[in-house]
Amino acid sequence: MEQFNPGLQTLVTLGNSYVKAFQALAVTSEAYFSAVAKMGEQTLHTLSSRSLGDVLVQISETQRRLTAEMEGVVSICFIYVYMFLILFSLFIPPIYLCLFTICP
């Protein structure tokens, strides 16, 4: 990390924070939609609310699938950005890195 200029270091730090925040969102989302699914399963056993229970279970399953897919996309995107920054810092001559920082 130390070989990156301050702007790139900040970008990586912000990316790490974004991934952690998204992971926390995924955990909270899972808890919420587990509760929705449980309510849906309970209403499946009543005569008057069976269709509502079915809809709640479907919503929960769909949201879980979307969250899992988004977790994968966010992780892959962050890995690609991080790899790009490493390659960028290795192959770009230091004089051009100066464009991304305040140089004397």
Automatic annotation (TrEMBL):
The keyword Transmembrane helix applies. GO terms for cellular component: cytosol; nucleoplasm. One of its GO terms (biological process) is plasma membrane organization. It holds the Pfam family IMD. It comes from the Eukaryota. Residues 1-75 form the IMD domain. Keywords: Membrane, Transmembrane, Transmembrane helix. The chain crosses the membrane at residues 73-97. InterPro entries: AH/BAR_dom_sf, I-BAR_dom, IRSp53/IRTKS/Pinkbar. PANTHER family: BRAIN-SPECIFIC ANGIOGENESIS INHIBITOR 1-ASSOCIATED PROTEIN 2, BRAIN-SPECIFIC ANGIOGENESIS INHIBITOR 1-ASSOCIATED PROTEIN 2-LIKE PROTEIN 2. This is IMD domain-containing protein. It comes from Hucho hucho (huchen).
